[in-house]
Amino acid sequence: MDFELSEERTLLSDTLKRFLEDNYDIDKRHGFVMTDDRFSKQIWAQFAELGMIGALFKEDAGGFGGHGADLMVVFEALGRHLVVEPFLPTLLAGTALASTSGQEGLIEQVISGEAMIALAHGEPMGRYELSHVTTTAEKDGDTFKISGDKAVVLGGASATHLVVSARTSGEADSEDGISLFLVEASDALQIRDYGTLDGYPAAEIRFDNASGVLLGSEGAGFEVLEEAFAVATTAVCAEAFGAMEVAKDLTVEYMHTRKQFGVPIGKFQALNHRMADILIELEQMRSAVINAAGNLNADRIIREREVSACKHLCGTIGRQVAEESIQIHGGMGMTWEYPVGHFAKRIIMIDHLFGDTDHHLERYIQLGRIA
Questions:
Q1: How far is CA 321 from CA 63, 148, 246, 278, 348, in A?
Q2: Which pTM value belongs to this model?
Q3: Which of 29, 257, 316, 319 is the most buried (most CB within 10 A)?
Q4: What does each C-alpha distance from 130 to 1, 148, 349 come to in angstroms?
Q5: CB atoms within 10 A of CB 300
């Protein structure tokens, strides 16, 4: 298997890296988080002009990427700069939209930056189970009326359109009977926006007889959701890897400059051994991301097992990298002004996004029994 990036992906990677290095340092990032939108719409428009949003979609959906390797390149670069613009919400909702016909016009608007989308799926009592949906949808002529509450909707407050999961039949935890709907954000009864612990925009959304257009077949939304979350989980693992690399580099740099007993602490053998362990784990993490990205088009069981294996490893290694980075820096690592603490925070939060290490280990075992 060839692990080298193609010429097009190398160009994509170089373009994005140069743009972020010139326009997205940690101080600017802090400024974006403090705005009303919690990200920069100007930067988002520039991402659209560069074609970075189009890189999230496959050619048959109007984009020019969308494959595992494309997502790996984009999200690793985003993780290196803690980018808060809504790439992840766009990928989640966009993957669901692209799986159904008739929404090519909206996807084109999303790629150009004219429209913004988010997936409203998680619910207050759902935890990590994709099949837990209590929001209801009742047919009303050519549309459906949707009622219910959605929690931690990433990018939900800035979205112009929402892809909403709702139950048209079945029990609350059944995989059957879940349908997906396209809802204009203005039809939501209430949208309460907030920033997550690591500074990323999210929202709680309440629907009360909101009008929704059915996406795909009624009751067949679970399969679409599972694929969308597999793609998004692989993407955040790549993002976490990028953040881990920066945390490691900052720690190594600190070890070469911080002195104790008249010598740099990088001379201490115990610290060198700890960083050597980190380097080995990061190479394992790199391989896991490549493996998951390469299996996104595989059969369902293989795809889901490899994604869960990657996410489990991401949480385990991420916690080790975050803890070592903070401990070696000492109190300085926890200050707002120094960036390593922000990278550590994002790495830890990604562990709890779309299922933590325990959830994915159990899921990997269960999928193995099915296989």
A1: 35, 39, 10, 6, 10
A2: 0.94
A3: 29
A4: 33, 16, 19
A5: 13
Q: In this structure, what DSSP letter does residue 171 have?
A: -
Please name the residues in contact with 359: beta carbons below 8 A apart, sequence gap of 6 or more: 128
The tokens describing 24, both together, are: 């997205």
pLDDT digits (tens, 9 = 90+) for 87-136: 999 999 999 999 887 888 999 999 999 999 999 999 998 889 999 999 99
Separation of alpha carbons 5 and 122, rounded Å: 35
Task: Yes or no: say if 18 and 50 are a contact pair by the CB < 8 Å rule.
Answer: no
> How far are the Cα atoms of 254, 270, 278, 309 from residue 273, in angstroms, in the given order?
16, 5, 9, 26
Tell me the pLDDT tens digit for each residue of 324-368. Answer: 999 988 888 888 889 999 999 999 999 999 999 999 999 999 988
Angle between helices 68-81 and 269-294 (to 10 degrees): 140
Closest CA to 145 of 166, 123, 125: 166
Neighbours of 342 (CB within 10 A): 20
